[in-house]
Amino acid sequence: MRTRVTELFGIEYPIFAFSHCRDVVAAVSRAGGMGVLGALNFTPEELELELKWIDEHVGGKPYGVDVVMPAKYEGADAGDAGELVAKLKGMIPQEHRQFLEDLLAEHGVEPLKDENAGDVLLGWTDVTARPQVEVALRHPIALLANALGPPPADVVELAHEHGVKVAGLASNARHARKQVEVGVDIIVAQGTEAGGHTGDVSTMVLIPEVVDAVGEDTMVLAAGGIGRGRQMAAGMALGADGVWTGSIWLTVDEADTSEKVRGKLLNATSRDTVRSRAWTGKPARFLRTAWTEAWESERSPGTLPMPMQFMLISSALPRIQRSGDGELVTFPVGQIVGSMNQIKPTAQVVYDLVEEYVEAIERLNTITEAD
Q: Rounded CA gap, 236 and 220, in Å?
């Protein structure tokens, strides 16, 4: 396959795979696509170790790193990370802490005993994501991607100085134009079907809107509910230069997804997801579970703004995973989850995408061929 993005990065297939798992990232790149490591959950020191491992296992193939530098979040006027954490911690209402403790108790999850519970900030802010960017640019990455708004112009400039291309996720045409204004090279046009943070416009409508909005000089990747070759062909037909995928890598052999979550994903249908603020404070698509239902219920105090919601629940998440009651277990995933019903090696998923894409194109060719 040959598109502008395959030519730009020297990859075989225009398939970009977002994953928090280094094994998946390396496997996709070795198979001819481009793996993109989500840096959010790692401290700078941990990210250094992850990228060093990828460097050693990617076989010289290109890969990328994805950070979260939201355009808007609570505490943006604070100074360093320590000051920001202290400020935000003090802003979390006791009502929300009590609701969380009661919810955990109802499901037999051990109570929150750690006095530092609610302190975890990770890479949800500009001040905490910048060290991740610095670490990433010390490695031979080919792409730096940013979610939740356009990346700061100086970060784009810094990446370009290192010879690294920049991608920005957009959920509508206006957001896409803002990304172009700060100098991003690639727009990831992500429809509402996607897992994690996502807007409310469907992929089928969004892709041509964004392609038209940014013009021919800016490459676009189709994202949101793409996990089959036919969907890949549709995205390309709508004007995209490639596809950005995420959810489908949660159930591959190499994924570090917990068995509880993996089991739920394999049994879920495309109707078993919901856009909720119950994890980060911003709308994100998750598996619909007792967790999402509780935060949307009448007794809920409501969710907190980003990044306070995640700070509130961060210590609860591992406890939920360890508990015997799996009712609260949820995970970011898109509507493509209904097609994720088999565990396969990562490389096989890549090849299946390409094979079905080719079959779809051949079918279209038979329709347009003259007698």
A: 10
- The Cα–Cα gap between 153 and 262 comes to 38
Examine the pLDDT at 184 and tell me if it is beyond 70.
yes
- End-to-end C-alpha distance for the chain, whole angstroms: 27
Q: How far apart are CA 257 and CA 234, in angstroms?
A: 29
Tens of pLDDT along 84-143? 777 888 889 999 999 999 999 999 988 766 545 545 655 567 777 899 999 999 999 999
Are 128 and 67 in contact, with CB atoms under 8 Å apart? Answer: no
Q: What is the residue type of 65?
A: V
> Rounded CA gap, 192 and 241, in Å?
19
Give the separation between CA 209 and CA 179, rounded to whole angstroms. 15
Grouping H, G, I as helix, E, B as strand and the rest as coil, residue 155 is: helix
Q: Please say if the pLDDT value at position 214 is more than 60.
A: yes
Is 274 strand, coil or helix? strand
Output DSSP code: residue 310.
Answer: H
Q: Torsion angle of alpha carbons 16, 235, 351, 167, nearest 10°?
A: -10
Strand partners, 36: 18, 64
What's the mean pLDDT when you consider all of the chain?
A: 91
Those residues whose C-beta lies under 8 Å from the C-beta of residue 44, and which sit 6 or more positions away, are 131, 132, 134, 135
What is residue 318's predicted lDDT score, i.e. its pLDDT?
A: 84
- 283's CB contacts (< 8 A; 6+ apart) are 197, 198, 199, 200, 275, 276, 277
Phi, psi of 34 (to 5 degrees): -135, 115
Contact indicator for 244, 16 with CB cutoff of 8 Å: yes
Query: Is the peptide bond between 345 and the residue preceding it cis, with omega within 30 degrees of 0?
Result: no
Distance of CA 73 to the CA centre of its chain: 18
The residues with which 285 forms a beta bridge, in sequence order, are: 196, 275
Contact 41, 57 (CB under 8 A): no
* Selection from 141, 145, 179, 186 nearest residue 162 by Cα: 141
Residues forming a β-bridge with 34: 16
Any idea which of 66-80, 147-161, 256-270 has the lowest mean pLDDT?
A: 66-80
